[in-house]
Design goal:
Serine Threonine Protein Phosphatase 5, Tetratricopeptide repeat, three-stranded antiparallel beta sheet, single chain, 550 residues, 20 strands, alpha/beta, 3 domains, Rossmann fold, eight-stranded mixed beta sheet, 41% helix
Length: 550
């Protein structure tokens, strides 16, 4: 087994937690002929930590004097838990989507909305084959018609990207609104819709400008053609061409009018935006055993799992992950009241066990932040790319036997009870942790001063990702002993004095990271998005500087 170098573990957890996660930036490039080994016992433990499609046995029930066996019930849980409960599952190998469908499809066909959602996710992910988005839409729509929130959200992401359906961002935000129980007169919905309105209007204006130029040209051609047609010398063959061009002109005119009418119909469904109040109450944050409060707003307790991997057994060592992890952990603990578990130079089993153990620690009003700094990699599977975190005992690509998959992380995030979870990933390909698009409903970087925004978001679940570089490599240095991304994150968190939302944090670091990376001759742009399939419900993540209770 690969030895752990400089491993250091510190638990600050009490009884509930909130997760914020950061992954460090670096790529693996060690020769492929070097290998490491993990004992079978460790692999058995790791196999039991995987989230699987489990088919539980029926239960013997009584109704009066009659006994009967209830139907078998599909659930998502760990392989170990499935075994304990007497369930049936396929050993963790998602290479064949048919094995997953065998668990969920019978219940889906009988009308169970959760099963229909699961079937939709199977077809969207592909599970070893190319995704089938059209079939995914079919099953999501069936579940959505029964009010399933996750299905409504997944439909929104497909409409936003134009996968399996015609791209329609206004339809997407309407599905998001329904998924999160947001009324149509909500300020947040109105603001997002108006932003999309403006984009559509600009797009339509460009289309109309192009059409007007075409029409002006065709108008001149029409005048010329009419002269030809009125000429007594015009021949029949010559008359066919002007007639065809006139028909084309009529089609273009109809297309312009249809486009305008379609957009106007969409825009007419969006209510007018109200003017928001943009000042937070002057309450002092109070930190106690039951969490942090600001006035009448209860932010709950804060937990962090901070991971820094620098000294690799086989892969090339990195420079900054330990510095980044230690300083960020220190800031979170001392300035923001997080209970911090710090993992330095950890192997695969340690990282996976730490994530799994959060399930027994966190409760429903907790906040969790996971920060990971270390090597990252990706594997192309059909039409999609899958990301991985590389622990210190990882082998180089393509040997992914000891890597930690993004699917493992996101599956466990969906299982945790914590209300608000933020993953901050500073690693190569860290943005692949989420397949969700863009930033619809995620805010525009000015929400920290808006009490209506905070009060609306606070009671709702969030599963969010902030990555240092999306689906591309990122720079490991360039920040005076830290990565470029970690340096801006540290500076922003240290200088903050009030409630800071995740969109505001992202807005403050995005351009400085791009600029500083450019000074180091590197192209890098952070991303911020929802972690799809992990139970996000339009919530946010809040950093609240603490004041100790005497």
């Amino acid at each position: 087994m690969a030895s752990q170098k400089g491993s250091y573990h510190r638990w600050w957890f009490a009884s509930s937690a909130a997760l914020a996660f950061v992954v460090l930036a670096a790529c693996s490039n060690t020769p492929e002929n070097q290998v490491s080994a993990t004992p079978a016992s460790a692999e058995d433990v790791i196999a039991g930590l995987q989230i699987v499609d489990c088919l539980l046995p029926g239960q013997l029930r009584k109704l009066g004097n009659m006994s009967y066996m209830s139907p078998r019930r599909p659930v998502k849980t760990t392989a170990a838990d499935c075994r304990i409960r007497g369930g049936e599952y396929v050993s963790y190998d998602r290479a064949d989507y048919k094995t997953a469908l065998k668990v969920w499809l019978p219940s889906a066909e009988q009308g169970d909305a959760e099963a229909q959602l699961a079937v939709g996710e199977i077809f969207e992910k592909g599970l070893g084959t190319d995704p089938n988005y059209e079939v995914a839409v079919f099953w999501y729509q069936k579940a959505a018609d029964q009010g399933n929130k996750s299905a409504l959200f997944n439909l929104g992401t497909l409409y936003e990207q134009g996968l399996g359906v015609e791209k329609d961002r206004l339809q997407a935000i309407n599905y998001y609104r329904q998924a999160w129980g947001m009324p149509e007169d909500s300020l947040i919905y109105q603001e997002t819709a108006q932003r999309e309105q403006q984009g559509l209007r600009a797009e339509l204006a460009n289309q109309l400008k192009a059409k007007d130029q075409q029409l002006a040209l065709l108008d001149r051609q029409m005048v010329s053609l009419k002269k030809q047609l009125s000429s007594a010398k015009a021949q029949t063959a010559a008359a066919d061409s002007p007639a065809t061009e006139l028909a084309t002109l009529q089609q273009l005119l109809k297309s312009v009018h249809d486009d305008r009418a379609s957009v106007e119909r969409k825009l007419s469904t969006i209510p007018k935006l109200r003017t928001p109040a943009l000042s937070m109450p002057a309450s002092t944050p109070i930190a106690g055993d039951d969490g942090i409060k600001v006035g009448d707003m209860d932010f709950g307790r804060y937990y962090a799992l901070v991971i820094g991997n620098r000294d690799y057994t086989v892969l090339e060592d990195l420079e900054t992950p330990l510095n980044d992890a230690k300083e960020i952990g220190d800031i979170l603990e001392k300035q923001y009241g997080f209970q911090v578990q710090l993992l330095l130079n950890s192997d695969r089993l340690t990282v996976m066990q730490a994530i799994n153990e959060l399930h027994s620690v966190l409760t429903e009003n907790d906040n969790l932040l996971i920060y990971y700094a270390g090597h990252g990699s990706m594997v192309n599977i059909g039409e999609r790319d899958t990301g991985y975190w590389l622990p210190i005992n990882a082998d180089p690509p393509p040997n992914d036997a000891f890597w930690v998959s993004n699917e493992f992380v996101s599956n466990h995030l969906g299982r945790l009870q914590a209300k608000r979870i933020l993953v901050i990933a500073d690693s190569c390909y860290g943005g692949l942790l989420s397949s969700a698009p863009g930033q619809l409903f995620l805010g525009q970087g000015r929400e920290s001063d808006n009490p209506e925004y905070i009060k609306y978001k606070l009671p709702r679940r969030s599963r969010l990702l902030m990555s240092s570089g999306g689906d591309k490599p990122v720079i490991d240095e360039g920040g005076d002993g830290h990565s470029v991304f970690a340096r801006e994150l540290i500076n922003t968190l240290r200088s903050n004095t009030g409630v800071l939302t995740a969109p505001d944090l992202y807005a403050q670091i995005r351009e400085p990271v791009k600029r500083q990376a450019g000074l180091n001759n590197f192209v890098q742009e952070p991303v911020y998005k929802i972690i799809k399939g992990a139970g996000h419900e339009v919530g946010d993540f809040f950093f609240v500087p603490k004041t100790k209770v005497n």
